[in-house]
Amino acid sequence: MNNTHKELDIIARMRGEVMGRKEPTGENLFLVWGYPTVVVFVLEFATLMFLHKHWYVWLWIGIPLMGAPLMMYFQRKDYARMGHRSLESNIALQLWIYIGGASALLGFTTGVTNTYPVCYNFIQGLLIGLGAYLTGVISRFRSMTVCGIIASIMAFACLFIQDDLWPWQFLVTAMTTVVALIIPGHQLKNYLKNYEF
Fold first, then answer.
1. pLDDT (tens digit, 9 = 90+) per residue, 36-74?
2. Rg for the chain (alpha carbons), in Å?
């Protein structure tokens, strides 16, 4: 009987230690990918509108060149602090890896096939909005879910901005990124800063 109490005490203490740990959050990842994405889309707009250079279609490569090293740094830091990742964290990370790969493939194929003006910004904005929506659902962070829906709806504006006005799609996609990644990223960071773990 005495051993049972000791075992229960050990289990309770271990559970308390696990529950008291700070779960990996990845709150920086939205900002790490959001800001470079906005910068690149504004650069693409400026390159096309003011310099009239058609190599703008390859500027999207700057997003993973800026974002990937920062993401790896924050992921390593998060993992070193915790020694593990939560299931939700893993699912969200895999989702964004898939979206990043799809975005890279989209940028490459639309650049090669010269269909960049027709569909790139719309699909990119939709992917970003969908990713934010699904991450919000996975993490149960309602603000991110709502921002993902709003960003996905904003992406449809790109379908109406065509012909001579199509470069303005870059700014729409930049605003979509602000709504889907940067705003919820700051909200999540502030929430986690004020939340007692």
1. 889 989 998 998 888 887 777 777 777 888 877 887 787
2. 21
